[in-house]
Amino acid sequence: MSASSTLQNLGEMLLSGKIEVVDLSGPLGPSTPILQLPPEFAKNTPKIEIHKISEYDDDGPFFAWNWLVLGEHSGTHFDAPHHWITGKDFEDGFTDSICPQNFAAPVNVIDCSSQVAECPDFLLTADAVRDWESRHGEIAEGEWVVMRSDWYKRSHDEALFLNTDADGPHSPGPDAGCIEYVLSKGAIGWGNECIGTDAGCAGGMTPPFPAHNLLHGANRYGLASLAHLDRLPAKGAILVAAPLKIVRGTGSPVRALALVARG
């Protein structure tokens, strides 16, 4: 089958509903949970603000529009390599310089929801990923790997979503070996349902924050605050996640989508 025929079939399947477009993004607004850094850092990302310019009124009788206050890493978002010090030297590591071919790829969904239900500090290891591959098939070069935890179901409550106490944040994620293994497979990026791509305890790991440190040092990408990964198969879906083309941007909120065959 030719490439043009494949695209034509894809279009027909989208129109017929045989391919479902699944929204993997949470709502973006004033109630969206925002990561808060430790007090020793001077600045934090502000809460999202939506300000009306006009809505069919004296300020604009025919049109409605808003202006926004939001950080690059707010809500469901894309981490570009330049977000982390290990990725600072990649000229194609900004949101406006990444090759757009990298914004769509097959996705591997590793279901850790039962383990996370028992322990919010659950860490995914390389051995667990290998076990997953033995059951579902190997991760191929250029594919996304995402961790399903069902953590997005907490996002209606910022305190529940951030899950922080006197010992720090408690949320699931990968350990360093997991990210090293995923990178050895040639994955294009890693995604998590929590506030960031790392686990809550990742600051104490070696290296600290391994998802950020290792992914961006390899010129790879991260996706955070994903939602509805429970609606995807382990393999076979296509993930589309395109950041805004912010000039020399370190990341961007995204409307992450998955294409899933139905029926």
Account of the protein in words:
This protein has 263 residues and is α/β, with parallel strands linked by helices. 20% of the residues lie in helices and 26% in strands. A nine-stranded mixed beta sheet has the order 1-15-13-5-7-11-12-4-14. It has a two-stranded antiparallel sheet with strand order 2-3. A two-stranded parallel ribbon has the order 6-10. The chain is globular, with a radius of gyration of 19 Å.
Instruction: Strand order, main sheet: write it out.
Output: 1-15-13-5-7-11-12-4-14
The secondary-structure class comes to alpha/beta
Q: End-to-end span in angstroms? A: 22 Å
What string, H for helix and E for strand, traces the elements in order? Answer: HEEEEEHEHEHEEEHEHEEEE
Radius of gyration: 19 Å
Strand content: 25-35%
Helix share bin: 10-25%
Q: What is the overall number of helices?
A: 6
The coarse overall form would be globular
Low-confidence stretches: none
Averaged pLDDT, please?
96
Major sheet characteristics: 9 strands, mixed
**β-strand number:** 15
How would you summarize this macromolecular structure in one to three sentences?
The chain has 263 residues and is an alpha/beta fold.
Please name the defining characteristics of this protein.
single chain, 263 residues, alpha/beta, 9-stranded mixed β-sheet, two-stranded antiparallel ribbon, 6 helices, 26% strand, globular
